[in-house]
Write a structure and sequence with these properties.
tt1808, chain A; alpha+beta; six-stranded mixed beta sheet; single chain; 12 strands; three-stranded antiparallel beta sheet; 369 residues; 3 domains; Replication modulator SeqA, C-terminal DNA-binding domain
Length: 369
């Protein structure tokens, strides 16, 4: 079938590029030859039904795999008109009688619609195929996928197209939510968002900006295009870890990889910064009875707690992090592990040491990268 279809498409391309075709010429030329190559018997008026009656109007072609089943409505447009607004009446009828596909084409552009889809008529478009601009292999694959006679007859075309459309529709709806959620984050900046920006500024300038300045900056972006701000400013790669300066020189110069050493004891090695961070907090909880409440109070700003008795306090509004980024550290206390090993882990351990009178970088040395 592919060889026949390629031959039909090449011939259609030549006719389309040679000059202006009339609507009738498109119907009798490129469209019928493509349908024939896809396995439809264009000489059987019970299979490829011309001028099919639809209420008070007619559809150019109704494609039927059996006398009892109408599978596709195919409407021919004048050249250059395939992207015009779809016919509302045609779609409504196709939807009510359960027609799986509606195709609008001018010979060059083939628009495939799923009448049972959601949204307006353009949102129900499954795919737009341009047989002149697109690769031949892609053209053949799409046409066979949606309009191959055997695939339509067996129902494979309908099942796969519906699945493809549902996936596309879900992704579009999620994409449409991004600006609103971003505005919500800007109106009351989340700790995690502030941390990302603080770390990025520190990586570029060598000094941490004040959190209140970061929060005020984010709130001010509400007057700007939220998507533009998101793409242009906040979501950008941080500098390599080697360019980050910790507040204590001792930490940077530690040899032996990720781990920590407490008051001249043995160096405890770990595979990841998270493992090291958790081990330090667990040690402090175990050996200092009043550490956890002091560490809890050391967190002065933001919504997310550093240590708490519930995952919701660590990650309010983020049930995904509440299960995947929460670790028990003893005595009924939990900590969150969703943070940067470049800046946030050293900052929090430094605060943790201060809670129990240890000097970070002297009494406790740690490396998280």
């Amino acid at each position: 079938m592919t060889a026949m279809l390629e031959k039909a498409l090449v011939k259609a391309r030549v006719k389309i590029l040679s000059g202006v075709l009339s609507e009738a010429q498109v119907s009798q030329g490129p469209v019928r030859s493509v349908l024939q190559a896809l396995g439809w018997d264009t000489f059987d008026v019970d299979s490829v039904v011309p001028e099919y009656s639809v209420g008070s109007r007619r559809v150019d072609y109704a494609l039927k795999t059996s006398l009892a089943t109408t599978d596709v409505f195919l409407e021919i447009k004048a050249p250059g008109k395939a992207d015009d607004a779809a016919d509302k009446q045609l779609f409504e009828y196709a939807y009510h009688v359960g027609i799986p596909f509606a195709v609008l084409t001018d010979g060059r552009i083939w628009n495939f619609y799923l009448p049972s889809g959601q949204g307006d008529y353009q949102e129900r478009r499954l795919f737009r195929l341009d047989i002149v601009e697109m690769e031949m292999a892609e053209c053949c694959q799409r046409l066979e996928r949606y309009l191959g006679f055997e695939r339509v007859r067996k129902g494979t075309a309908r099942i796969e197209a519906t699945s493809e459309y549902d996936d596309k529709f879900r992704k579009n709806k999620i994409k449409q939510l991004i600006p609103g959620v971003w505005k919500s984050l800007l109106s009351e900046p989340d700790d995690l968002l502030c941390d990302v920006l603080i770390e990025a500024v520190e990586a570029g300038g060598g000094e941490r900006p004040a959190r209140i300045d970061v929060e005020n900056f984010l709130k001010a972006q509400l007057v700007a295009d939220p998507v533009m701000v998101l793409n242009k400013f906040v979501i950008k790669p941080l500098l390599p870890a080697a360019s980050i300066k910790y507040s204590t020189e001792t930490i940077v110069n530690v040899e032996g990889g990720v781990g920590f050493q407490l008051q001249n004891g043995d160096w405890q090695s770990f595979q990841t910064g998270k493992q090291c961070y958790v081990a330090i907090i667990r040690y402090l909880v175990k050996h200092y009875a009043d550490f956890a409440p002091r560490f809890q109070n050391a967190k002065s700003r933001g919504k997310r707690a550093w240590i708490a008795h519930s995952a919701k306090e660590l990650f309010p509004g983020r049930p995904d992090f509440q299960t995947s980024e929460t670790t028990e550290v003893g005595a009924g206390w939990l900590i969150g592990t969703q943070m940067s090993a470049q800046v946030e882990m050293p900052k929090r351990i430094e605060a943790a040491c201060a809670c129990v009178g240890l000097a970070f970088g002297r009494d406790l040395i740690a490396r998280f990268l």
